[in-house]
TrEMBL record:
It comes from Sporolactobacillus nakayamae. Belongs to the acyltransferase CrtO family. This is Glycosyl-4,4'-diaponeurosporenoate acyltransferase. GO terms for cellular component: plasma membrane. The chain crosses the membrane at residues 6-32, 118-138. The keyword Membrane applies. It is a single-pass membrane protein.
Length: 171
């Protein structure tokens, strides 16, 4: 009985995760800003160095699957394909989108406390954190590096003449 409840909860978790992902894909890229409260770099992150020092993110980040591996119309964040200002701006904003969806999945796992006992609720929350935190770490590691490249090009996301509507039509 408990195993069946756990399997059902994992299936519901997967459905909620898919819904979170679909919603994030539909959000216009123009609403994301790398310097907003959630996405801005914190001093303790030291432009991503914290994640490399404590988690060795460079060693494993390219081994994790990414949704664009399965859905080719999505923006791929596995590797930088070009260094144009528009591409780098888009890449930085897409890291914001990815981070948001993973935080939303973790937060939505708290819904399970409404219909489950503490053990299953904690398991689902732990599962959500374990599955999503690595992706948040990757976004928070990559974004400062991308912004540094943009800064070296003497451009900022807000200062570029980037047409976000045109870039977002593929999603």
């Amino acid at each position: 009985m408990k195993l069946l409840a756990l399997i059902n909860n994992i299936l519901v978790f997967m459905i909620i995760s898919i819904i979170n992902t679909i919603i994030s894909i539909k959000l216009p890229i123009a609403i994301f800003h790398h310097d907003s409260w959630l996405f801005k770099a914190r001093a303790w992150e030291k432009d991503g160095y914290f994640y490399q020092h404590w988690f060795s993110v460079k060693r494993w980040k390219n081994r994790l699957p990414e949704l664009s591996d399965f859905l080719s119309f999505l923006f791929s964040k596995k590797q930088m394909k070009q260094y144009s200002t528009e591409y780098l701006c888009r890449f930085a904003l897409e890291t914001c989108r990815a981070e948001l969806v993973h935080w939303c999945i973790i937060i939505s796992s708290l819904l399970f406390t409404k219909w489950n006992h503490t053990g299953i609720s904690l398991f689902i929350f732990g599962f959500a954190v374990l599955c999503n935190l690595p992706y948040i770490i990757i976004q928070r590691y990559n974004r400062p590096r991308i912004l540094s490249i943009l800064a070296n090009k003497k451009m900022t996301i807000r200062g570029s003449r980037l047409n976000l509507d045109v870039l977002h039509k593929d999603i």
